[in-house]
Amino acid sequence: MDTTRLIIVAVGGQGNLLASSVLGEAALLSEVPLNMSEIHGMAQRGGVVESSLVFGGAKSPIISDGEADVLVGFEPAETLRALGRCNKNTVVITSLAPLMPYTVNIGKGVYPDLKQLQDLIRAKTSKLIAFNAASLAKESGNVLSVNMVLLGALAQTEILPFSANTIKEAMQRKTKKAFLDANLKAFDLGFSAAAGTEA
């Protein structure tokens, strides 16, 4: 079986770990081997949270610099920060809704220009799918469903070794019933957004 290496980066509280759990369940449902690791960092204080998921026959969850097949970023600056893990064949999916770090809010830092950020990513990778996932999450009825929006976008690329329907089945098993309808709507909105985004 071919190996697919996925990195997900987010800021604490954006639902990276739930997204990873859903993908893990989808792999289990599809009988796809998976190695997964997570770096929580200062997640509770708005720090970076990173998940590495390696689907296929690999023996390790480690994804070295230049090895990612797919990078999914829940926050644009974190996507840019993880760009070193990508190569010229990597597909990058990112939300364009910034969460300003503390240093920017107190005037001690500068947030990257979103157009320049996208240009840098496009120059190094094969495809960029970029849109405001936060606005689609709000449209779905749950502002916290940015993670499900981006899972929908990821599913649309057909890079993973299982279908969008399998991910939806995994969502039913892994997300709270009270949020399921909104999460499924968010997933569908992300899928459509990715289909309509030019590289």
Order of helices and strands: EHEEEHEHHEHHHH
Tell me, what's the shape? globular
Give a count of the beta strands, DSSP E runs of length 2 or more.
6
Strand order, sheet with most strands: 2-3-1-4-5-6
Q: Outline the biggest β-sheet.
A: 6 strands, mixed
Whole-number average pLDDT?
A: 91
Distance N terminus to C terminus? 28 Å
Number of alpha- plus pi-helical segments:
8
Low-confidence stretches: none
Commentary on this structure:
The protein is 43% helix and 18% strand. The protein has 199 residues and is of the alpha/beta class. It has a 6-stranded mixed β-sheet, sandwiched between helices. Helix 1 (16-29) packs across helix 7 (164-174) and helix 5 (133-140) packs across helix 8 (177-195). The longest helix is centred in the last third of the chain and has 19 residues, at 177-195. The radius of gyration is 16 Å and the shape is globular. The chain starts with a strand and ends with a helix.
Name some characteristics of this structure.
single chain, 199 residues, alpha/beta, 6-stranded mixed β-sheet, 43% helix
Break the fold down into its secondary structure elements and pairings.
Elements: E1 4-11, H1 16-29, E2 34-39, E3 48-55, E4 70-73, H2 76-81, E5 91-95, H3 102-105, H4 114-124, E6 127-131, H5 133-140, H6 146-157, H7 164-174, H8 177-195
Parallel strand pairs: 1-4, 4-5, 5-6
Antiparallel strand pairs: 1-3, 2-3
Helix pairs in contact: 1-7, 5-6, 5-8, 6-8
